Amino acid sequence: MALLEVSGLNKRFGGIRAVKDVDLSVQEGQIVGLIGPNGSGKSTLLKLLTGVHKPNSGSIRFDGREIHNWPINKRIKQGMAIVFQHSRPLHRQTVLDNIKLALLPDRVFNIHYPGDIEAKALQAARLLGLEDVVDAYPGSLPFGYIRRMEVAKALALSPRLLLMDEPFAGLTPSEVGELAELILSARHEKQAIVLVDHNVKAVYSFVNRIIALYVGAKIADGEPREVMANAEVRRVFLGKSMDEGQILQPSMASEPGGDNLLLDLDIESLKYGKAEILRNVSIRIREGEFASIVGLNGAGKSSLMKAVTGLVNYTGDVKWRGMSTKRMTTAQIIRLGIAFAPETRELFHHMSVKENLEMGGERLNRHELEARLEDVYALFPILRERVAQPAYTLSGGEQQMLTIGRALMQAPSLLILDEPTLGLAPVVLEAISEALLKLHQSRGLTILLAEQNLHFALKLSNSIYLLDHGSISWHGAVADFVQEVGDKFLV
Ligand SMILES: Nc1ncnc2c1ncn2[C@@H]1O[C@H](COP(=O)(O)OP(=O)(O)OP(=O)(O)O)[C@@H](O)[C@H]1O
Ligand SMILES: [Mg+2]
Asked: Ligand 1, closest atom to CA 85?
């Protein structure tokens, strides 16, 4: 008997059919990958399984029992656990307390506080390599650690079915490898796992079966090799990425023409409290250049982007066309023609897709605004279909597209992108690569990219800065990067 047996499952949101007649089964001990383009219904399916959403019709049998009407806590008790796509840690609690909370009894009036909670939580922290940060607060930790903490919360429950929604998103290749190993070694033999992730390489090496979704419906189910070779899966999800695979493409960026210095940045020091995040970082960007900052999570990439946009304090100076921006507010800096798509997205959650985009183009006249909107919709067609939808109900990838789209609306001179590849399907990455190259080449847009996806960064950039523990440890042209540092980073 299968551990999980789903049949005829349907979920509608208004006119959108997010999950369509899905049948699937998962056996004890099986590790299943769930893939599909952005908005194909993967997260919705996981939320139906755990009871966050109720299906419109269909059946979910877990361990032989029909559970589609059960509340979440009852399903968790029966042995399900989920790692959500978006981490929402409790910032006033330590890492250990966050994990402990997942283990607390699910009744308000429970008078017994199980004595082994502390030990179980510590063990889960240890399994995920968090033992050194159990007393730290989530806000002070790099992104990779927050994802690990989310996995620890789920694993602490020793579930029979572990559902993970993009645990690897935003991690560098070496961090992905580490986390995958930790998860596999922490897992007990009979535990089944359903993994959603856009990191094709990671999914491929992790799972023994793959299910592919497209517009809510199942389009393939079987051996990983077979599913990855499936023509429809390649067309709607993989694009050319499997052929290009891990082979490095030479940079396709055109050399910047003039010598006009746009951005001249010299940061002596950037600190959060006592912790020094950046030290003696210098970056110069010429007009028309495509520069990328690469480095591990926690290296300081996002802080650097925030310094340029006036969101954090620092000592040193940042000059835009020779003029210091140090005393300017973020609003003033943005008006100079600098657009920013932050890693944390910062969308206006209760505003619609169109309203979010209009906020980006708030200083354009009606005619320009319409033209820009059309450009963004051409780049991300799904946004046109979702124009009236509030931002918080968009899928992870759709939110990322909206963040990039909003920055493009501004018609900037310098576009700053912090991890734009986060959570996007391979086909969408291709579309974005092409669009950025086009903007860079035909309109001469200057771009500053912070990225952990090296293949993406190298393909697009003129110059690379490697940020290592808050300092630039390497700077130069793409070709030299590949020769001199590449291999270490491309594991
Ligand atoms: N509460 C909601 N209201 C309206 N539409 C919704 C809601 N939740 C999800 N959707 C829509 O349903 C579709 C499926 O969303 P889902 O989050 O399941 O996609 P996904 O496969 O996880 O995508 P991604 O890879 O981008 O995370 C999306 O197009 C999304 O906009
Ligand atoms: Mg999702």
From this structure: 27
